[in-house]
Amino acid sequence: MIWLERLLAISAKEARQLARDRVTFGMIIGVPVLQMLLFGYAINFDVRDVDAAMLDQSRTSLSRQLVGDLQATQVLRVVREAGSERELRELMQRGNARVGIVIAPDLERRLFEGNRPAVQLLVDGSQPALEKIAQGLGSMPLLKRAGTSATGVRRFEIRTEYNPARRTAVQIVPALIGTILTMTMVIFTSGASVRERERGNLELLITTPVTRGQLLAGKLLPYVIIGLIQTTLILGVGRVLFGVPMAGSFVDLYLGALVFIAASLSLGLFISTIALTQFQAFQMAFVTMLPSILLSGFMFPFEGMPAFAQAIAQVLPLTHCNEIIRGITLRGATLADMHVPLLKLVIFLVLMFSLAVTRFRKRLD
Amino acid sequence: MTVAISARGLTRRFGAVTAVDGIDLDVPRAQIYGFLGPNGSGKSTTIRMLCGLLVPSGGTVNVLGHEVPREVETVRRKIGYMTQRFSLWDDLTVTENLDFMCRIYGLDGATRRARMKDRIRSYDLASHANQRAGTLSGGERQRLALAAATLQEPQLLLLDEPTSAVDPQNRRDCWENLFALVAAGTTILVSTHYMDEAERCHRLAILDHGRIAAEGEPKQLARDIDATVIEIECADLTAVRRVLVTVPAIRSVAQLGNRLHVLMHRDSADPERELRASLAGQCADARVERVGATLEDVFVAATQLRRPDVERAA
Ligand SMILES: Nc1ncnc2c1ncn2[C@@H]1O[C@H](COP(=O)(O)OP(=O)(O)O)[C@@H](O)[C@H]1O
Ligand SMILES: [Mg+2]
Q1: Which protein residue's CA is at the shortest distance from atom 2 of ligand 1?
Q2: Which of A61, A144, B13, B96 has the fewest CB atoms nearer than 10 Å to its CB?
Q3: Residue A211's closest chain B neighbor by CA?
Q4: CB A13 to CB B105 under 8 A?
Q5: What is the torsional sign of CA B165, B170, B175, B177?
C-alpha cells in the first residue's frame, strides 16, 4: 500500500504543479483546439475549381460539349483560352492555369477510331494533389457522347466507402487525435522530468526511499489523464465543427487512446533520461515528432512509401494509433478487430517504459 | 557502534579532475562533524558519495553500519540530506512541500500530521505555511529545507552548506536547531566555509583540494597548529610589509585593523626576536607579540600554504 501511496504522492504533486503552470495548462487546452482548427480547415485534399486553360483546335460542337462536361464535374474551371500550344504552356508556366486542356483538331475522327488520344490533359506536376485529379478526369466517359463503341463506357466506378461524401475532415480529424497527442505528451513528460533535474529537485528526491518505478509511473499518471482530456476535446471539436461521425464504441476508442498515450509518455520519460536540459529534451521530442507525423499515414498514404520508410513507420506508435482510431471511428471496428496494431502499441509501451526505468539511475553520475 | 560514518581511501575522479583524493573519515555518533574548506575542495562530492548519489572511484564507505553504495537503499531510510542548492519545489507551498516529503518517506496519516505540525512550529514556519517556497527568503527556505530533512527522524543528517544564503541571526538559530537535534541523538555532518560555524562543531575536517588537511576538535587544532602566530602593531604597516616579504620563514600575512597577523614556520627558536631584529632598521616602533592561533589560522596554515617540504616532494 505504501508502494501505491508513494506513487500517488508523486502524481498529486505533479498535477498540482501542472495546475499552477499557466502556460503549460493553457497548452493542454489550446494546442489541441488550435491544431484542430488549423488542420481541419486548412488541409483540404478535396480539390475544386482548379483553374484550367483550354486550347481547342477542333472548334466543333462536340468539343464544346466535352469542355462543358469537364466543367460540370466542378473540378475544373476553364479560365483562359489559348490560341496556340505555346500560349497554353506560357499560361501554365506563369501559374495562370494549373491544368491545360488540348483538344486535337481531328477530335471526331480520333474518337471514332479510338486508338489515339483525342483530348490531352496537361497537369502542373509541381502541385501534389493535382495529378490524381487528372487521372480521375481521364477516366471520364467522354466517348459515350459520341455514341460509338463500347470502349468509351466507364470502366471503373469508384465509390468511397466509410466516407461517402469524401470529405477530408472525416479522414483528418481521427488521425489528429494521435498527432496532437504526440506533440503534447512527449514534450510534457520529457520537459517536466528534465526541469526537475535542472532545478535540483531530483537530487533530493533520489536520496529518499522512493523507487525508480514509483517515480516514473507517478510522473506518467497525471499526463495520462491530460491525454484523455485532449482526446475528448478533439473528438468534441471534430463532431461539432466538422461533423465527424463516430461509428464504433467510445470505450474502445478511449482504451486505444489510453495505450497510445502511455506509450508516448514513456517515450518522453526515456528522452528525459538522455537529455540534460529542457532545450535538449524539446529538440529530441521534435526529432521523434516529425517522422511520426510524416510517416504515420496522416499526411501521405502509407502504401506509397518506400520499404525503409514503412519499416520506420512500423516502429512509430502514431502509425498504429492512427490505424486503431480510424478503424474505430470511421469503420466501426472493435478493439478486438484492431488487436494487431494494439498489440504493437503495448509492446512499444512496455519496452519504452522498461528502457526508461533501466536508464534512470538514483544517482547523479 | 560509536561511529556513524567511516570511510577509507575515499576517492572520486571526474575525468582528469580528482575531486576527492583518498579521504579517511570517522564521524562519531550524536555529534556535529564539520567539513571546512574553500569552494571546490570536495565537500559536496564527499557528501554525495556518503549518501550514494555518486559512486566512489575508489575506497570504502560505511554509513550507519551499512556498506555504501551496496546497501544504499537501507541507508536512505535512515538519513536526511539537505542539498547545497535549495531543492524543494518552488511552486509548492511550505505545507505542500512538507506533506509531499512525508508521503515520500512513507509516513502514515497520523504521524504525518503530527510531524508537520511539530516541524512548522519548531522551525518557525507557521506564518509562511501557505506561501510558495519560491517566494521565501533565504533564511526561511533554509528552515524549510532543514524541516524537510528531519521529517523521517533520521539518525544521520547530511547538510551541505546549509547556511550559505542565510543572515547571521538565522544562522545562529539554525545552529540552535542543530544542537537540539544532536541532544536527541542525531549525528550531523555539516559542510561550511564560515569559520565561526566551524568553531561550533564537535569535530572538524579541513578539506583542501580533495584531501583532509587537518582533522580534530577545533580547540585541539588551534593548539596543534603547525605555525607560530605573531601580531605586529606599527604606525607604518606598509613599511613592515616590505620587510616581511624578505623574511623566508613567513608563511602568510593578513591585516586586522592596524595590526598585521603573521603566520611563521615553527623551525625558528625565537621567532619574535628574529622579527624584531629584521624590523629594527625601518620600523623601530613596531610591537611584536606572539598570540594564540584562531581557527582561521589553522585553516590558512592547512590550506593556502602547503608545507614547503610537501611541495618540494611533489
Ligand atoms: N559532476 C561533476 N563533474 C565534473 N567535475 C565536478 C563535478 N562535481 C564536482 N566537480 C569538481 O570537483 C571539485 C570539487 O567540487 P565540490 O565537491 O562541489 O566542491 P565544494 O562542495 O567543496 O565546493 C571541483 O573542482 C569541481 O569542479
Ligand atoms: Mg559544495
Answers
A1: B14
A2: A61
A3: B73
A4: no
A5: negative
- Cβ neighbors of A71 (< 8 A, separation 6 or more) are A77, A78
Interface residue of B46, B87, B90 to substitute, partner A, most A CBs within 10 Å: B87
User: What Cα–Cα distance (Å) separates residue A240 from each residue in A163, A173, A326?
Assistant: 17, 12, 18
Domain extents for chain A? 50-161, 168-359
Average pLDDT over residues A339-355: 96
Considering the domain delimited by B225-306, tell me its CATH architecture.
Answer: 2-Layer Sandwich (3.30)
**A165-179, A184-198, B247-261: lowest mean pLDDT where?**
A165-179
Query: C-alpha cell of A275?
Result: 537529455
Which-ligand-closest: CA of B18? 1
Is B11's C-beta closer than 6 angstroms to any atom of ligand 1? no
Q: Give A266-308 pLDDT, tens digit per residue.
A: 999 999 999 989 899 999 998 998 888 888 877 777 777 888 8
Per-residue pLDDT band for A140 (boundaries 50, 70, 90) equals low
Q: Whose CA is nearest to atom 26 of ligand 1?
A: B40
**Nearest residue CA, atom 10 of ligand 1?**
B19
Nearest residue CA, atom 6 of ligand 1?
A: B14
Q: According to the model, what pLDDT value does residue A137 have?
A: 67
Contacts of A44 (CB under 8 A, 6+ apart): A168
Q: What are phi and psi of B52, to 5 degrees?
A: 80, 10
What is the C-alpha separation between B293 and B103, in angstroms, rounded? Answer: 49
Least confident interval from A85-94, A273-282, A310-319, A335-344? A85-94
Q: From the list A13, A204, A209, which residue is nearest B92 (CB)?
A: A13
- What is the CA(A196)–ligand 2 centre distance, in A? 20
pLDDT at residue B307, rounded to an integer: 44
Greater confidence, B267 or A265? A265
Contact predicate B192/B117, CB 8 Å: no
Residues 12-71 of B with CB under 8 A from A: 48, 51-55, 69
- Contact between A196 and A188 (Cβ < 8 Å): no
The answer to whether the CB of A303 falls within 8 A of the CB of A293 is no
Contact at 8 Å (CB) between B181 and B12? no
Using a 6 Å cutoff on CB, does residue B40 contact ligand 1?
A: yes
Angle subtended at Cα A180 by Cα A175 and Cα A186, rounded to the nearest 5 degrees? 125
Mention the CATH class of domain B3-78+154-222: alpha beta
CB-CB contact of A186 with A289 (8 Å): yes
Q: In the predicted model, is pLDDT for residue A355 greater than 60? A: yes
Residue ranges of chain B whose pLDDT lies below 50 = 307-314
Mean pLDDT confidence for A322-340 = 91
B89 touches chain A (CB under 8 A): yes
This prediction's pTM: 0.82
Residue A106, C-beta contacts closer than 8 angstroms, at least 6 positions apart: A58
Mutation test residue for ligand 1: of B21, B43, B45, B164, the one with most atoms within 8 Å of CB:
B45
Tell which CATH architecture fits domain A50-161: 3-Layer(aba) Sandwich (3.40)
Q: Where are the domains of chain B?
A: 3-78+154-222, 93-150, 225-306
